[in-house]
Specification:
Length: about 100
């Protein structure tokens, strides 16, 4: 299993709008080859921070989806959203055990 984890922090008090956008997301990625699931977290101690974790059968499936669909997948981002500079981080993981 391959995991892609994106972490970002909102700079302009739009956490509610971001949460609503994730809840109402169009689920386009759900039918991508190799996609296993998506979870979105927001730490209790910082409601402006979001962790987006997608699970894939393998890294190649993720790369194909990212190359072909990343732009359209982000069309639901609330207008006017600003991130804390330098807060966006993307990390990749291989599953070691279950």
């Amino acid at each position: 299993m391959f995991i892609a984890l994106s972490v970002f922090e909102i700079a302009n008090d739009m956490a509610k709008e971001v949460k609503e956008a994730f809840i109402a997301r169009p689920h386009q990625v759900d039918t991508a080859i190799g996609f296993l699931g998506m979870k979105v977290f927001s730490p209790q101690e910082n409601v402006n921070e979001f962790w987006v974790m997608t699970s894939w059968t393998d890294e190649d499936s993720y790369k194909v989806w990212y190359k072909d669909h990343m732009k359209e997948a982000h069309q639901g981002i609330p207008k006017g959203l600003k991130l804390v500079p330098g807060s966006l981080k993307v990390r990749f993981f291989d599953q070691v055990s279950q």
